[in-house]
Amino acid sequence: MSSNEQERLLCYNGEVLIFRLSKGDVAGKGPAEIPILQVRRMVFDRGARAFIQKSTGFFMLKEENSHLKIVCCNCVSDFRIGINLPYVMIQCNKKNTFRYVLLFLHSTNKFEKRLSFRLSHELKDGVRVLNGPLVLWKRAEKFYLISSLNGKVMTVSVNFSSVQWAGEIENLGMVLLGPKACFLSEEGCTQKLSKSDYAIWKTTFCVYSLENEEVISDAYIIPPAYSSVVTCVHVCATENVNNQLRMSLIALTRKNQLISFQNGTPKSVCQLPFGDPCAVQLMDSGGGELFIVSFKSNDICAVWKKNFQVAAKWEKISSVLIDDFIGAGTEQVLLLFQDSLNSDCLSSFTVTDLGNINYSVSYVGLASIQELKQHLLLKEKIISKYWKILINLIQGKDESTSAAEKLLNMFFFKAHLVTLCGKEESPVCTFEEKIPDDFQDSERLIEKIWYRVIDDSLVVGVKTTSSLKLSLNHVTLSLVMDQAHSSSCRLIKCHNRVIKLSRDFPPASRSVPCEVGSEKDEESSAGEQASEKECVQVITAVTPFSPLLAFIDFCCIVLLQIRERENGNSSEDHYVWCGRLFISLEDLSSRKYLLTFPKKKPIEHVEDLFALLTAFNRACFQITSPTYSLTSMKTWLLEYMKCEVIQEFPEICFCKRPGSFYGTLFNWKQRTPFEGILIVYSRNQTVLFQCLHNLIGALPINCFLKKLKSGSEDFLIDHLASSLEKELVILGSLSSALVEVENNLVQSCEASKEKSSGVVAALSDRKENIHLYRKEFQREKTQTLGTNLKVSGALYRELTLKLAEVQLRSDLAAQKLAGL
């Protein structure tokens, strides 16, 4: 910055405003002799870890041949609109006449001349601009002010020796606080006072109302013993008790102390680490409030409000600003370091909240090639380290929690390692776009990712290819918080579901989605007649959305973990990088991904249906009518509940009945004329109870409703039959000579399962059905073991272990089925 330029900094709404007053042509905005005031709006980029320019503005000062100076800049309230606006006050000196101009800066970067006045003298240090705006200054032991309302200079009637604080108090308006002389003479005092006592008692702090032009309080502020040593005051709170103003404030003293006063009584004191404190500001860091104290020696310290202990200190600071610079919802302190080698005032700085947020940048001029090589070498070491952790975790060598956390940190570093030489390759996969080739394996397991916001839930979905056969027991979809200001990442607590729906599904073979386990759900409506190509398979994760709203631009990493079993007794984990999701408040405000229900076309996209199946509460009921058929169920769904069958997935019905019912999903499968399964996907429990109440009125007399806890019976019966089949296959594989016998046994088991399924549909006693399954299994087992089989001991032990695992699964399925 040249000698003809002046620069001041100010923070406003998370931005840093840089005012620069210069003479000369600035970007072709005017001739050389016209002074120009330029403003640059700077915002902090967390990715680049630097302040970048957002916009600029200019104002031409038509003051030729005048000496110009920036007097002060800050933010005050404009009484016309009641909003805080940035201002800058300019002094124009021409022929010993001083003209002062106060300019407001608006969001469009346009300057407004709000106040202008002339004086015969120069305003020195101590000029204050108050809300209104009002300009207050001191000259010849008196205080003067001028208002933008009338433009007249007025005198403050109270003989303040200094004004330590000025601000607005409720019901009192604008007030001034400071010590005033008591005109106590040593001769007129009735008591004999020492010179030190006289110096103390001759001044007292008082509060003066500018509106009423009178002193409204001179008690319960600061004791007289401290009046002579206080140099700065910050008022924290005020209240009116019995027409007496009470104050809570903090004060800086010449003894290098920070003291807290409550209603005129000192409460806490902190000895400051530097000398000559001159200003104090309050910062709310989220983890606690702090006092930021500035010193004349260009040093800064932070003091905790809760215990009055020094939290941090910094030296050689040129400027200190407090605001929410990174958009975290809490305040941070911006410390600008003195750097005589660089003209850019934002080249060396620290942004911190003395907690988790800490950005520090030091200006080093032109970086050498050697420094760049060292930086790249460090990143290569990080990548190599976490790559080894990933390999060990996949191979099962380290399955500890710490290793999993290290793995997630590896993915975090992968997303944030920036290419230094050349442009950065974009590793970002935006929602509802095809996944890049470098983020999926050779089989292209992931087709696309998407998200929806439903009420207070965020639903993230990953659509997989039909070649990937999944069940909820061996797949997990994780959401990892991606925070630029953190060196690690943390998992977002979410609830997983695997949803499988089939297109053009034959009505006779539809099966009912079922729920397995308490923490994760698996829903499958793919029947035996449906091919894998017809199946739409989606893994979803749902999490509360309210805690994430604190981030203006929320970003998370989507990671899919697949566990595959090898040889029946060992498992191998595979990790699939699905991509990253960016969610901004701007998108939500435009309702871009906010799921709503238009009247004409309730479900516009397939992803909307999967989001509803994930976020809604799911309840499964078995409906039995011993005397009448359940033909009224179809009438109830289509006519009374105004349901519409989703064409692409006809097993799902969408309720279009107005009111709280609208948007509820139903899945009805009638197994026999007298029995069926109803699954209800409702927004909340109240809607579910309303649906059941209306359903009871439409059902025949003596109907029974039973809520299924572990899922539908069809799923358990099929699961049990499959387990029994696997037992027979293992028994048949005891000898290679029994391959033909094994095939016959499998076919026999299939025929037996179909025959038993018919028996299950006709009989009502579930325990007897299980007995029939067991009896058939024991008969086939006896026939197989009666064969002369000769195998080696190692093979026998392996087959016995497999058989024990399969029998355990079948026993568990039988136990659940018997409990229905």
Automatic annotation (TrEMBL):
GO terms for biological process: interstrand cross-link repair; negative regulation of double-strand break repair via homologous recombination; positive regulation of double-strand break repair via homologous recombination; replication-born double-strand break repair via sister chromatid exchange. Residues 507-528 are annotated as: Disordered. It comes from the Eukaryota. One of its GO terms (cellular component) is Fanconi anaemia nuclear complex. InterPro entries: FANCB (IPR033333). This is FA complementation group B. It comes from Lynx canadensis. The lineage of its organism: Eukaryota, Metazoa, Chordata, Craniata, Vertebrata. The gene is FANCB.
